[in-house]
């Protein structure tokens, strides 16, 4: 082989190597690209799989209420607080509101005092609805941190608002985001600055406690309550209904107060009112959160507020009297007003028990006919004098969405109070009780 032939051979071999190397590079690159494609494809499958699981969980919660085999498991979920955590992440806010009174003229009202008023205010994330759940002060509960059994109002006296919050969370399995403790002295100053609050006092109220320096002396009828009379109206519980009747009056007072706060004359007093609040309220809300709540209060209508009192029955053993909560009905109220569960859609007509004042006797047949034409069925009606108009929901079918039809069509219900009172043992058993007030 001559020199030229050997040189040409080397040139061809080098070209073959370069071609082979380029081919190997192309094959390698193609494999890598294919791997990347499979990587994306695998993650797409994973995303679909996770979505299916998530939708399955949602379907489970929707079906758990209907399927008796799932109810027990669903109750466990409730007890673990998982649903409460989910609601908090969704933006709903639960605020524990406590009303306290001083143990003495020189005492600190925020230290060692029992909470005379206990209300959970649940606000949805858009600020479109505010639900109030009142807890009777004598409710028998287990206090956390080894404090044993006591009335729920003792929690604040023993451990301040922190223990009160923990007690409510552990007793009812819900999250409390913030607390507000209000001093009754501050409430009186607030009402005095407002110029009084209009209230229709439903009956004669008289009580005198010389030791506490408290005198309640109210006549029935429409009044503009000044600071002292408003305190008496809020604290009176010396009748057959006791604390439960007092709670209902507090709910009516809050409605009247909200309407008063929305008036033009009140807006001019805002700086003075804010100063009074700053001296008589203890809270863990920051200024931004307070301003946000004030904005919500300014746009919410009193008629859109839904309220309930935790049901139960009085029980007295020895020297201590308790309010024994009804666990099942309490859970129904929490589901409706805290978790905002909506009743199942049902094409059946919602049944109604109707009470009306004597002044409407001649009109009642037309009113009943009109209520029936709106998709309801009046099963029972009777004359009964009541100061306030109310729409009371008893069963799980009683949807709040149906209430607007009644309010728009029945003038006497335009300013009605919506209350949730689970009680399917009423006679006659109806979905709603509608009470037409005298005013």
Overview of the structural elements:
A hairpin with a 2-residue loop joins β13 (312-317) and β14 (320-325). The N and C termini lie far apart (125 Å). The protein is an alpha/beta fold and 439 residues long. The radius of gyration is 32 Å and the shape is globular. α5 (184-194) crosses α6. 45% of the residues lie in helices and 23% in strands. It has 2 domains: 93-338, Aminopeptidase (3-Layer(aba) Sandwich); 350-435, 2-Layer Sandwich (Alpha-Beta Plaits), CATH 3.30.70. The strands form 5 sheets. An 11-stranded mixed β-sheet has the order 11-6-1-2-3-12-18-17-19-15-16, sandwiched between helices. The model is unreliable at 33-39 and 64-82 (pLDDT under 50). The chain has helices spanning 3-64, 68-80, 82-89, 154-172, 184-194, 227-235, 242-261, 264-267, 270-280, 287-299, 327-338, 364-373, 403-409, and strands at 93-100, 115-123, 130-134, 140-143, 148-151, 178-183, 197-201, 205-209, 214-218, 221-225, 281-283, 306-309, 312-317, 320-325, 350-356, 376-383, 390-393, 417-420, 432-435.
């Amino acid at each position: 082989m001559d020199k030229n032939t050997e040189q040409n051979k080397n040139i061809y071999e080098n070209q073959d190597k370069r071609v082979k190397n380029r081919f190997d590079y192309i094959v390698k690159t193609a494999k890598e690209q294919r791997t990347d494609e499979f990587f994306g494809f695998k993650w797409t499958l994973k995303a679909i799989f996770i979505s299916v699981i998530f939708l399955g969980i949602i379907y489970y919660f929707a079906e758990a209420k209907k399927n008796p085999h799932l109810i027990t498991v669903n109750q466990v979920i409730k007890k673990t607080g998982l649903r409460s955590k989910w609601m908090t992440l969704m933006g709903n806010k639960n605020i524990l509101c406590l009303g306290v009174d001083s143990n003495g003229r020189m005492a600190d009202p925020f230290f060692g005092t029992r909470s005379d008023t206990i209300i959970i205010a649940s606000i949805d994330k858009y600020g479109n609805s505010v639900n109030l759940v009142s807890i009777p002060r004598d409710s028998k509960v287990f206090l956390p941190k080894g404090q044993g059994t006591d009335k729920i109002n003792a929690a604040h006296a023993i451990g301040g608002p922190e223990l009160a919050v923990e007690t409510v969370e552990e007793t009812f399995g819900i999250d409390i985001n913030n607390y507000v403790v209000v001093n009754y002295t501050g409430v009186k100053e607030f009402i005095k600055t407002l110029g009084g609050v209009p209230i229709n006092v439903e009956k004669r109220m008289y009580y005198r406690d010389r030791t506490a320096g408290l005198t309640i002396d109210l006549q029935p009828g429409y009044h503009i309550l000044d600071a002292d009379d408003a305190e008496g109206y809020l604290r009176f519980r010396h009748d057959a209904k006791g604390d439960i009747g007092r709670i209902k009056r507090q709910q009516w007072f809050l409605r009247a107060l909200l309407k008063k706060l929305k008036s033009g004359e009140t807006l001019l007093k805002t700086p003075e009112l804010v100063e009074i609040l700053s001296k008589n309220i203890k809270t863990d809300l920051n200024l931004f959160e307070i301003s946000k709540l004030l904005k919500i209060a300014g746009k919410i209508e009193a008629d859109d507020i839904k309220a309930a009192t935790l049901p139960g029955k009085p029980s007295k053993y020895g020297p201590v009297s308790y309010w024994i909560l009804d666990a099942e009905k309490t859970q129904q109220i929490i589901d409706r007003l805290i978790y905002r569960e909506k009743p199942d859609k049902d094409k059946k007509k919602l049944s109604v028990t109707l009470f009306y004042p004597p002044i409407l006797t001649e009109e009642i047949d037309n009113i009943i006919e009109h209520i029936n034409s709106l998709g309801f069925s009046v099963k029972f009606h009777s004359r009964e004098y009541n100061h306030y108009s109310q729409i009371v929901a008893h069963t799980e079918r009683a949807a709040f969405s149906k209430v607007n039809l009644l309010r728009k069509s029945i003038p006497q219900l335009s300013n009605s109070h919506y209350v949730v009172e689970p009680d399917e043992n009423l006679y006659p058993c109806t979905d709603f009780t509608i009470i037409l007030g005298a005013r």
